[in-house]
Write a structure and sequence with these properties.
With about 260 residues, this protein is mainly beta. It is about 5% helix and about 35% strand. A hairpin with a 4-residue loop joins strand 16 and strand 17.
Length: about 260
Amino acid sequence: METIIKMQRTGANGSQQVANHGLFSIGGRSNQLLNGGTHQVGHLGLSIGRTRRFAPTVLLMVALILGGCSKDDDDLNGGKNDSFNGTVNAKVENGASYESQISTVWALYDAEINSAGELRGRILSSGDYTNGGFTITLPDIPSSFLVNVQTFFESGMKINGDLEYSEPDAQILDADFFAISADNEYLDYFVYTNAAAKRTTCLFIFADSNVTVKGGKDINVSLRKGWNRIFWTPADNKVVSTAPSGMKWYPNSALN
């Protein structure tokens, strides 16, 4: 059963509890983000033809937020896979300065920000924002919301070239992370990135089976059943399973 919640922008009287996987809709704080910028809709998520389509302009993906993506000796079908186990430990750059504004971080799937600046999505889990960061353990995404791996990479991420899939029937989806005030107002979302001119963003992907995705020299991804991290550099049409140097957590508004 879905729970639909519409939060008021003014007069909120404290937090409301939302069941995991409940559908909700909340307003932003006059669309003002943590660093004083104005929220620009149309750059969140991937357009992959799910029940609610994401905006088609894809600048970067917010399936973000996890402490130090490190290399691992785990081999999966001939490719490298890092050691992410589904628990997010995020230390945000200058994170202490946001503690007076952020109360909770929500991990969402099937998320979007509509033209009215309202955040909609389904809640996977949440964690308190304390000590300049947060910790969230991600449960499985329900199978009915997963999409085909080829659809995700080619129609969603717009990866170019001939891709090979070790398990073409694999189903996957990403999770996104949002800063929420004590009044349940949407404030911002977080990005785990190197913040370089050619930005690499860490995506958090749930898969229902082991699958590798390869193509040319710059597409080499190994996903195992459960939660994974991949690293996407759109400017170079590059997606890999190992982290580049300099990856850190930021509120998205700090990058604009």
